[in-house]
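Q: My collaborator sent me two sequences in one message, no labels, and asked for predicted structures for both. Can we handle them in order? The first one she listed is below.
A: Yes, handling them in the order given. First sequence, followed by its structure tokens:
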Amino acid sequence: IRVIVLDLVSDMKIPAEDKHLEFKSDIDMAGNYMAPADSTKIKQVFLNFIDNSIKYTKEGYVKVSLKKEKRGNLEMIKFSVSDTGMGINEETKAKLFHKFNRGDGETSAMNSGGSGLGLYLSQEIVTAHSGEIVVESEGLGKGSTFSVLIPIDSTTSTVIPTAL
């Protein structure tokens, strides 16, 4: 998972800087970041979150982070993208992962394009990997953080592709 994130940080730095955004990263370089995951699908989710963050942030920063977090007795990989973008209210947050949803007009103000399927597909992929998506925002105009939590596989040292 760490290799995927490092590649995406490298790839997405230029699009962020083209919008005059500060692009930050905080990647934990220690320990096991292996997960029984389809690396192509997980990369698609992470890319969607970074791309959305860049797309919906007019000024300020986008920050990508990778660390471990305990959830009960499970050790999880936590990938997060935080920004100073448009933020999300509670009503919109409840509908984010539905098919063809684009934020009830909030996002249309950014003329962002898109089908409204990215977050829906991301949710499906993460759920298929026994993971969880967490969305945090203090409201409109206050930025947001999208996180993916995936269980660490402590029994392997390689990424195991799985079919969805």
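Q: And the one she listed second?
A: Here it is, processed independently of the first:
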Amino acid sequence: MMNQVKYSIIINARPEVVWETITDPRKYEEWTYIFSEGSFFDGGWNKGDSIRFLTINSNNKLEGMISEIAESKYPTYISIRHLGFIMDGVEDTTRKESEPAYENYTLELLNEDQTKFTVDMDIEEEYIEMFEDVWPKAMEKVKEISEDAKSKPMKITIRTRISRPIQTVWEGFTRSEHVTKWNHSSDDWH
């Protein structure tokens, strides 16, 4: 049987800034080291995306959670549905469908420049004590990163996968005869 826990913190930054702290790959690594040093994720944060929360164990094998984004409403709400585990590089998704485990992040704008960040999650009894210790520390780190970032311009990263050899992609990105085909303004640019 799952237990539900809930943690909140007030952050002096807007929800958009806190959202970026939670989901940006570099910032994610910075605040989740509290749970496990070297933590990272593979996947996306949009509704329906597969996402794996990972670390490398002492045997140089992946460990972590296999999940999907059940809901994503930028910049106020993310619901993560945990589907299984990765232990020593082996994936196990035999979790009972009747007992889904969710981890939800709510970002509530309190005033012009303040956000209440709340995490509520389903966890098994054996992990409650650990999360009681680490989640407040992780939230303090999210607060620190977000409050530091609000004074800096927000970085936007755009990624895509291209099914071509790296040399072909590099030439398309750097050779002038190709650049002019993709790097130009539209008629409505001003």
